[in-house]
Amino acid sequence: MQFLIALFLIAGFSFSGEERVCINVKGDFPKEKYIRIIVRKRVEKALLESGYKPSCQKPFVPLDVIIRRVKERPIAYTSKGRISSYSLSIELEMVFGEKRGIFKGFAPYRQPTGAVGDLYRKKAVNEIIDKIYLNILKFISRR
Which one of 5, 11, 90, 109 has the minimum C-beta count within 10 Å? Predict the structure, then answer.
């Protein structure tokens, strides 16, 4: 009996009957590679927590994640007229089989001294995706 169990594990068979899901992240925002990476990682995490296997080997169910909008708006200025704070908003659309869902989030971030840099913006992106993560998890697990 132990030999059969070992044979199944070596051959790559699974007793749980995991369903494979292929993630396809789309969006016409060429400058937003970091957003694509973070969205993909969080969706993979949600799939794993829901019992699916992220894989594009056939047979699989497609999961399309469309980055519909990335909007950055200045909300505060320094005394010298430079922009010091922004509001970043992201809108995602997910299509999983027959289901569709739209997820929105926003977060403010500052650029101290009005400098240009991505560190604070990346933290804002992480904060937004973390805020909508539970809604994504519910969407995926209700299939």
Answer: 11
